[in-house]
Amino acid sequence: MSPPAAVDERTLTRRIVALALPALVVLAAEPLYVLVDTAVVGHLGRVPLAAVAVGGTVMSVAVWFGTLMAYGTTGRAARRFGAGDRAAAVAEGAQATWLALAVGVLLVLLAQLFADPIARALAGDPATAEAAAGWLRIAALGAPGLLLAAAGNGWMRGVQDTRRPLIFVLGANVLSAVLCPLLVYTAGWGLTGSAVANVVAQSLSGGLFLLALLRQRAPLRPSPAIIVRQLVLGRDLLIRGAAFQACWLSATAVAARFGVAALGAHQIGLQLWFFCALALDAVAIAAQSLVGAALGASDGAGARAVARRVTAVGAVAGLAFAALAAAGAGVVPSLFTGDPAVLEQAAIVWPWFVGMLPFAGVVYALDGVLIGAGDVGFLRTMTLAAALFGFLPAIWLAYALDWGLAGVWCGLALFMLIRLVFIVIRWRGTHWTVLGVTR
């Protein structure tokens, strides 16, 4: 439940860590598997690595839907849990599951229809486009499972159950991490083996979350009223997510124009960034749960105490990740490829990657605070402004002036800096501390 207003800071830190550590494993499992997949495919050559870069960027749309579904469900479920109504919190998960199934099936159909034109639009090389389209058609079959897992994660985080999500997600991804090299190399399936391993992980994880919901014996009939309220909240998260997707897709498209080696290096850097970002987001998950529960229990002082503490924890975590990344500059890229041209391009990306991590720790922690508070309208507007007036102009200018990957990652850094300034200003105000279950 929510922390009292005068809670001891050490006790609050322990509670944040108790929620964040299992969430860290859950958040890191999927991108860690993607890193394994990237390393396995990277040793097949430049074209397969570039194909996974393109296909993986498109599949990030499904991850985006899953993230906003999980975050929206966590905030709503946490408020109801904080108000003492666990059944209503689980009911949020049941309705989110219906949304997950509908969106997942739609994404599968769209991938089968439009894989070729999307791959051609993003890839600068015909061989890369063909390989990416084939990978995407298979990998998209895992979208329903991925979204079911996101919905399940959402309501379980809301009721502060982080143990079962850890088991479900970690078990599925460990299995697929073992399958990936077996299918790619031993079975000789190449890129197809990579895509099949993705589908196995996502489908198994989604099935386990669905089974957990059925065991709650919650009402499963669709409730249009709850679904509509979730969609209203999801609208702002969707628009915010669209801004992120425009940034990632544009970054991949521009990187592709600088050559196959640049695109391969960008894929390595971007997947490592996603891994670190989602790991840092573990603090944000704890913030969503604790802030939502505190506000649901009408404890504004407790919510602000959580916000202060997670900001400090996020900053420390960001610095720690930056130190690790800096120490691994000469080693980590070579784990993904032996191509000298790709490694040369990765060296350009690395200083930007390391430099953004400390700021990311603060931004992601405060993202969690505001999502838990239901203040997603502000997050929507802030992210759109950072994308439209910072990142997108910078990245297309980098393309026009031939700045290479340094220009692409400079745009990403500008995007992060603008978000940092605006979210700190919001955090220091009082607009986000709305009490009760009104959001």
TrEMBL record:
**Sorted UniProt keywords:** Cell membrane, Membrane, Transmembrane, Transmembrane helix, Transport
Residue ranges annotated as coiled coil are none
**Residues that span the membrane, as ranges:** 16-36, 48-71, 96-115, 135-155, 167-189, 195-214, 237-260, 272-298, 310-336, 348-366, 378-399, 405-425
Q: Which compartments is it annotated to reside in?
A: Cell membrane
Task: List the CDD domains.
Answer: MATE_DinF_like (cd13136)
Taxonomic superkingdom: Bacteria
Give a yes or no for keyword Nuclease in this entry: no
Its membrane topology: Multi-pass membrane protein
Give the Gene Ontology MF terms in alphabetical order: antiporter activity; xenobiotic transmembrane transporter activity
**Where does it primarily localize?**
membrane
Cellular component (GO) terms are: plasma membrane
Q: Which InterPro entries match?
A: DinF-like, MATE_fam, MdtK-like
State the signal peptide span. none
Q: Which family does it belong to?
A: Belongs to the multi antimicrobial extrusion (MATE) (TC 2.A.66.1) family.
What is this protein identified as? Putative MATE family efflux protein
